[in-house]
Amino acid sequence: MFEKVLIANRGEIALRIHRACREMGIRTVAVHSEADAKAMHVRLADEAVCIGPSRSTDSYLNKSAIISAALITGADAIHPGFGFLSENADFAEMVESHGITFIGPSAEQMRKMGDKITARQAAVEAGIPVTPGSPSLDTVEDAKKWAAKIGYPVIIKAKDGGGGKGMKVAFSDEDIHEAYTMARAEAKAAFPSDVVYMEKYLQKPRHIEIQILADKFGNVVHLGERDCSIQRNNQKVIEESPSPALNQEQREEIGEIVRKAIAKIGYQNAGTLEFLFEDGKFYFLEMNTRLQVEHPITEAVSGIDIVREQIRIASGAALGYKQQDIHFNGHAIECRINAENPETFAPCPGKITEWHAPGGLGVRVDSEIYSGYTIPPFYDSMIAKLIVHGQTRNSALMRMRRALEEFVIDGVSTTIPLQQDIISQTEFIDGIYNIHWLEDYMRKRNMDK
Ligand code: ADP
């Protein structure tokens, strides 16, 4: 097992990884930007190294600074968390070439499964159903040709896309020029490549994803699904597990398809396959070759510590159980709490004057925040994840309502009022929602005001 792990991230996820290491008796090294000198993960880690100025391009994305920090402190592994360098195959390769273990899949697997176009190909070959789609599109003419083949509406997406960026929908030949040029321009600005491709645009799907774990000995398990259909701007706001839309047969069927496919592909470590689900059918979207923000709801229902498993797998340990040993228990819901204006969604960094996190049975808060902490303006606005677990969906919902009520965050605005509003809507309570529900609901609500 590793003796010292460097955590190449910040915020709640850095703290999450620190906690897993601690419980495994592993020492931790925090790296941080100048703006994060007082962050909780820096305060708790055994050692901390400042890797650069506040902008993430100068610090959390600075590969050589991070690797130097690992070499200086003698870390034997690096956990990348999510975001930043977590899906950067060049970084994984650099880490390994310095004799340090990258906690995640190999660079080769990351390249294949992290690229949406090659991942779709691999998925088809491994028996996973995908949305009808195109190869890479070189020109607008190409896009038109493929749209005619697939049928409108279509969505143009960046092959390296993430965070809901670089995606544009076209409903007819008239929109295609704009959708194509805008998707490419967005991709160029945000991602390493501006290559785009096209998929059939599904009109009322749910977003359902399957968590997997795979070791170096060919053992693969799935940890069930997460329903992440409550979204704004293609970004997740609330997630739950299990999905209220699936019956046991559908759940087992997709789980088995994914499990077998991952074994065939030979992928190792933790990963998530994202699907759209419409009219009883699954359509593969992409694979995330890393830990995900919403992993705690899976931990709650499966009882498996996913970060611990990532570290064990990377160190060469075998999964200690088979699929039939995994039993799902109860229902879990996560609310992502952002320091944002709940109406305009403008980021709201600043000093936290008062902080009281909810507690009690079945309540987990993953957050780096403490009273007196100042949220820097340079990074993502998510400041906490509130996760609740109950024996039934209804008890989890009641618990979430109670926990949100208890949360005190003073000094900055947060999205808690929006979360409270969502979970009290009939459609959410009944579990009847798709990826457009939240935006449709907010539009109606704003019109009534
Ligand atoms: P990203 O990598 O940016 O998160 P994804 O491919 O995972 O992009 O898609 C994010 C979200 O965008 C999905 O959860 C869904 O809401 C929407 N989306 C993506 N592809 C489609 C599609 N073919 N039809 C309808 N909605 C889609």
What does this structure look like?
The structure is a single chain. The protein folds into three domains: 84 residues, Rossmann fold, CATH 3.40.50; 69 residues, Dna Ligase, domain 1; 243 residues, D-amino Acid Aminotransferase, Chain A, domain 1, CATH 3.30.470.20. The model has no long low-confidence stretch (mean pLDDT 97). The chain has 449 residues and is of the alpha+beta class. The strands form five sheets. The protein has an eight-stranded antiparallel beta sheet, with helices on both faces. A five-stranded parallel beta sheet has the order 3-2-1-4-5. The protein contains 15 helices and 20 strands. The longest helix has 18 residues. The structure holds adenosine-5'-diphosphate (ADP). Adenosine-5'-diphosphate binds next to β8, β12 and β13.
What is the helical fraction, as a range of percent? 25-40%
Q: How many discrete structural domains?
A: 3
CATH superfamily of the largest domain: ATP-grasp fold, B domain
CATH class identity of the largest domain: Alpha Beta
Listed once per kind, the bound small molecules are: adenosine-5'-diphosphate
Taking the alpha carbons of the first and last residues, their distance comes to: 58 Å
The helix-and-strand class reads alpha+beta
Shape: globular
Give the biggest sheet: 8 strands, antiparallel
Report mean pLDDT, rounded to a whole number: 97
Query: What is the CA-atom radius of gyration, in angstroms?
Result: 21 Å
What strand order characterises the main sheet?
Answer: 13-12-9-10-11-14-19-17
Strand content: 25-35%
CATH topology of the largest domain: D-amino Acid Aminotransferase, Chain A, domain 1
The overall strand count is: 20
- The CATH architecture of the largest domain is 2-Layer Sandwich
Helical stretch tally: 15
The parts where pLDDT drops under 50 for at least 5 residues are none
